[in-house]
Amino acid sequence: MKAKTAVLTAVETAEVIDRELPELGEHDVLVKIDANNICTSEYGAFNGARKRPLPLVFGHEWAGTVVEVGSAVDSVAVGDYIASGYQYDPYSEPSREGRTSECTKLQSADHPNPDGYFGNAGCANYAVAKEVACYKIDKGIDPSVAALLEPLGTCCAGFRRFGIEYGQTVVVIGAGTMGVLNALVAKAHGCRVIITEMMPKKLETAAKLGLETIDVSKCDPVEKVRELTGGKGADGVIIAVGASGAYAQALEMAKEKRAHLLIFAAGYPAPKWELDPNTVHYRRMVIVGSYGADAVDFREAASMINMGAADFSQLVEEKIPLDKIQEAFEEACKPGMYRISVQCQED
Fold first, then answer.
1. Is 259 a residue whose pLDDT tops 60?
2. Nearest CA among 293, 309, 264 for reference residue 84
3. What SS3 state is found at 37?
4. Which CATH number is 39's domain given?
């Protein structure tokens, strides 16, 4: 069976090809993909900010309907509406301990598929996925919203490691897609959430979602956080912008003792951070890094989407057909954009 599949053939060049799907294994499912959202890492590969081997098939933020299952599949059935998490080896030691993200079995970046393409293809009208990567979504939910499962899951993972408790105050630096999702997860866990940003559009979106905002173009965000917390500072700060200034700012926003910092965003090129270890030592700080998500986090994210924990549609910027994949990437690369959602089925 052939699938219409998006591929990055060169920097700033994307096209759709007819690609043969692999045979369905006993633990595989065939999915009719309705929507695939373009991730930051993918448009970074498109514009050259992130170096990836080409030609690259891609797509890990997708949602669709199961149309066929392998002989050993028992957790999903034909007709189920699902979204994608990560595939992994369920029998590995990390998996048995719940750390499924540490035993992913994704296509190696250094070795192409048999047909010469690097990566895994989810931005297509059909795709083959591992059963363990599939999470049920309630029918009727917008596929572009359902496709937010993967980025939302990574925010659930970050918060689980963050160590912040119900009722505490969290500041999120940056109101892009991942900053807002981090803020919504923290809010869902009962935190007071303040988000900082300078772009009017992003500030408006955050406000629509019920988040307290600080417009950093109009005030000193550190002083404003102090004012809003009665001089105390934030219990925790989530850094959702990969910039050196954000790390320094987080230290100043955080309360003097026992503050928690979550380093969520990666920056390309890698930002520098001059951190005095004595500061961490004497202020008794907890600094946590987070990347990816485990199965438990994707289950939480699916629950948040299914119960309508927030109006996640605010983070879907525009829907563009698969056959206009070049246009989709060009839109995704524009500053300040939320998710561009590729619609993978013809009307």
1. yes
2. 293
3. strand
4. 3.90.180.10
